[in-house]
Amino acid sequence: MDDLIITNARIVDGTGKPAFTGNVVINNGKITEVIETTGAGAASRAAKRTIDAAGLLLTPGFVDIHTHFDGQVCWDKQVTPSSWHGVTTVVMGNCGVGFAPVRPGSEGELIQLMESVEDIPGTALHEGLPWGWETFGEYLNVIDTPYVMDIGAQVPHVALRHYVMGDRCYDDATPADMAEMAAITKQALLDGALGFSTSRFYGHVDKAGNAIPGTHASAGEMMAIGKAFADAGHGTMEIISDHLDKAEELAWIEYIARLTKRPITTLVIPDTNSGIWNLAARLAPEGLSIRPQVGARPASVLMTLEGTLNPMRQFPSYREIRGLPFDEQRRLLRDPEFRAKVLADAPTASRFADTNKMISTWNKMYVLPEDLSYEPGYADSLAGIAEAAGVSPKETLMDVMASGRPILYLFGKYNGDLNGQIAAIKHPHAVFGLSDGGAHCGVLCDASIPTYMLAYMTRDRTKGDTMNLEFVVHKMTQDTALLYGMTDRGVIAPGYRADINLIDYDALGLEQPEMVYDLPAGGKRIIQRAHGYRATICKGEVTYENGVHTGAYPGRLIRGGTVQAV
Description:
The chain contains 17 helices and 24 strands. By secondary structure, it is an alpha/beta fold.
C-alpha cells in the first residue's frame, strides 16, 4: 500500500515544461511515480491516503533562498509567514547578518546589528534566542529540530568578523584575521553551512549609523574567505554590493568563481549596471555560475502609524498624540483643529537622507492598491490624490494615515509599472530571491511573494504582460534549489522529495497586510496571509490543509554537502 496518492492534478513540475494532468505517488517521503494521464482518472491501487486534486494545480514546494529566520526558528517551528505561502524550504543567514559564531558575552551586540539592519525587534530576539552556542556548528546543532519545512543556514560575515576581530571588526582585517576567518568558514561549511553571505551595501548600518562590519572588506579578505569554499567542496556565496559595475569588485568575484567553482549570487535591481550581468554571461560557458538575484518587485516599505516608518513623525505637532492608542490617533488625524496644527508645522529632517525621501516624496508615496498589485500609478500617489482633490499632500497624508491603509514606497527608478522588474527576473542568468522572510517586521511582508508571483504576475496583471506559469514555478523551485546545491527537491519526478503544493489557482490570492504582536516579548510584525492553498506537503506529510496547520513537523535542518542528488 502506498503512503499517499494525489490524483487528477494539473501538474507544473518545476522544470519549466508545459503543465500536464497526472497522478503522483508518494512513499517514505519521496515521489515514487508520476503517471501522466489524458483525462481524469483515479489511481488503480490502494494508498493510506488518496487526495483527488481534480481542478487543482500541483507544484513542487517553493524554495526561498533569501530569508532572515535565523532567530525565529528558535521559537517558531512553523516558520511563518513563509509556510502560509507554499514554502517548504528556506535559506537564511543572508545579507551578512546572523547569530553565529559568537563570543560568549557578546550576544547582545549581534542582536543590535540584526535589529538595525533587518528591523527585527531586539526585545523579541533577547527573549526568544536560547543562545548557548559559540561556533557555527554548535548553532546548527541547536536549531536542528523538527519544523513544518526544511531550513538551511549560511555563515554571516558580520558575525564572523565580530567573532575574530572583536572591537576591531569595523577596521581593516590583518592577514592573521583573514586566515582565521577562512578557517572558521571552512569548518562551518564542513559542519553543514549552505554558504556564506556578506553585505557591501551603504544602507546596512548599525544603530550609530556606521556601515556594518565587512562593508569595506578588502578584496584580499574576500578571496581568503572564498578559498574556504574550494577547500570544503560545497557551498554558495551571496554578495550584496553597491559596486557591481566596478572592475576591482568584479575581479575578485571572478577570482573566487574560478578558484572555487562554486555558485555566487549577487543582489541586483533592474537598473543595476551591466557589469555583473556581463560577467555572468562571460563565465557561464565555462560552467562557472554567477547568478544575479532579483526580487518579485522593487525594494519597498509599507508606512503606517504602527510601523517602523511613520511619516507623521516628521511633524512636531504629532508628538502630542504619538503616545495615544492608534484608534485615538486616527480620530485626531481627522480633527480640524489638530490638522490645522500639522498643516502649520515645518517638518523636521531625519538624520538619514533615505528616510527623508521615503516620508516626504509625495509623488513616490502610494496608497497600497486594494488589489495588492504593488504596481501603483501616479493617481495612487499622495501627490496625485491631493492634486485630484485640490488639497495639499499633507492633508492627503493625514487622510490616508487616519484610514489605516498602508503607504507604499518603492525604491529605485519605478516608473509606474514593473516591466523592468519582470525583464530582470526573465534574464537567463537571474535567480529569484529577496523575500526577506522574517525581517523588516515593521515595514513589509515580502515572505508572501510566492503567492504574489502566482496570483498577480501569472494571472491578474493588467499593466503589461503576465508571466508564464511554468516559468514562474521553475524560478521558485528547481532553479532556487539548485543554486544552493539542493538537488533532491524542486521537481515533481520520481526520486525527488515529496515537497508539494496543491493550489486552487483560480481562487489563489493575498490577504491584506496586518500588524500583529505575536513575537516574543510582544514584538510586532507585519504579516500577510493567503487563500487558495488547499494543501502543502513536506517530505510526504501534509503540513497545511486549507491554510490550517495539521500538527505535522516533518522538516529538519539541511546540512550542506550531505544532499544526495536524484
